[in-house]
Amino acid sequence: MSINCKTDGNDTNSLFTFDGPQVDESTAVIINASGTAAGIRAEFRHIESLCGARGIDWQLDMQRQQSGKGKEFDVITIRLMSGETRVFVFDITAFFGKH
Fold first, then answer.
1. Domain ranges of the chain
2. Phi-psi region of 4 (alpha: psi -120 to 50; beta: other; left: phi over 0)
3. 91: helix, coil or strand?
4. Which residues lie closer than 8 Å to 77 by C-beta, 6 or more apart?
5. Among 55, 64, 70, 94, which residue carries the largest CB count within 10 Å?
């Protein structure tokens, strides 16, 4: 399993909106996993590598699957203990729907 950061985000049509802030899928972290459980673990490991331990440094605010431009995304919103909100976008196309 690998996590790759997508860096070709110059497409101004890459924005989509869900019930919340506008999200730029061109900055999505691409998760290459063999299945859903491994992919979700990779997502949260990535967040913890940037924001600290879940339940201590931050709390999950919302997690939502979103489709767009032929891809599947997991949009995760967390709230840091400082009150700051952060949104992470993961491209889950590689493992979406696989067990």
1. 2-7+14-91
2. beta
3. strand
4. 20, 60, 61, 62, 63, 85, 86, 87, 88
5. 94
Query: Which residue, 74, 5, 84, is CA-closest to 43?
Result: 74
How far apart CA 28 and CA 75 sit, in angstroms, is 9
Q: CB count, 10 Å around CB of 92?
A: 26
What is the number of residues in the chain? 99
User: pLDDT digits over 9-48, tens only?
Assistant: 333 333 444 445 556 677 889 999 888 889 999 999 999 9
Q: Could you give phi then psi for residue 13, rounded to 5 degrees?
A: -95, 15
**pLDDT of 34:** 86
